[in-house]
Amino acid sequence: MSDVLPGGPEPVPAPPPAKHGWLNFAIDFGPLLVFFLTYKFTSGGTGAFAATTGAIKGTLAFMVAIVIAMAVSKWKLGKISPMLWMSGILVLGFGALTVWFHDERFIVMKPTIIYAAFAVLLLGGWAFKKPMLKYLLQSALDGVTEKGWLALSRNWGLFFAALGIANHVMYELIEAGRMSFDLWLTIKVWGVTALSFLFTLTQLPVMLKNGLAVPEGEEK
Questions:
Q1: How far apart are CA 155 and CA 193, in angstroms?
Q2: Mean pLDDT of the 176-193 span
Q3: Whole-number Cα distances in Å, 207 to 20, 110, 119
Q4: Rounded to whole angstroms, how far apart are CA atoms 92 and 47?
Q5: Do the Cβ atoms of 139 and 18 come closer than 8 Å?
Q6: The whole model's pTM is what?
Q7: Using CA atoms, how far apart are residues 160 and 213, in angstroms rounded to an integer?
Q8: Is the pLDDT score of 4 beyond 60?
């Protein structure tokens, strides 16, 4: 799954496994929600410093939340997926930089770097006929063929590339003073999450066409 998915928010969206759907959702998007709520409740006041202080507090809460998410994944699911490991390492690394430099730009930049990394990994694997999404998720999409995993890897790679470009555009707008951090955060939490679910739905036909096992009672 995505994992939370750059010192600021960033669960990385991915197709949900067939089992433990609600738990995977909480693990992937819970830390991001913690960041959002912490920022909203601690960024009172006026001026850029107040917003930056709220972002720093949100980042600290996000770092704690991602560690808890990884622990819950290990406890309840018996494993921590490679994607969650990568997201956790990036979140903690960029989070530490954000706190150290006291600069919320690291928060805005992080998604671009993470999206780009996953896009390169997935599309690079697809180019060499390696379904990297299958290895990253280790999820129970029973029956999906290698051809199906390759198609999913390509599609999600392109999706991550598009997200990275969009996030970089927003970063440039923020730097130019034409977009606020609050607006970016709202888009990041709600817009990207909704878009990720919609994109996941568009991939269901690909999975069904390539052997996804449908539980009894849902075949009709």
A1: 17
A2: 90
A3: 18, 30, 20
A4: 27
A5: yes
A6: 0.74
A7: 26
A8: no
> In angstroms, rounded to a whole number, what is the distance separating the alpha carbons of residues 206 and 165?
25
Give the separation between CA 87 and CA 89, rounded to whole angstroms. 6
Query: Is the Cβ–Cβ distance between 32 and 21 less than 8 Å?
Result: no
Residue 85 C-alpha from the chain's centroid: 12
The rounded distance, in Å, linking the Cα atoms of 27 and 5 is: 10
Pick the closest to residue 206 from 164, 141, 148, 123 (CA basis). 148
Q: Which two tokens stand for residue 37?
A: 């709520």
The C-alpha angle with vertex 108 and arms to 68 and 135, in degrees rounded to 5, equals 50
pLDDT tens by residue, 42-100? 766 554 445 567 778 888 888 898 999 899 888 888 888 887 888 888 888 888 888 88
Rg from Cα positions in the chain: 18
Written as six digits, the tokens of 203 are: 């991939």
CB-based contact 60:95 (threshold 8 Å)? yes
Is the separation of the CB atoms in 16 and 1 below 8 Å? yes
**In the chain, what are the domain boundaries?**
22-102, 103-213
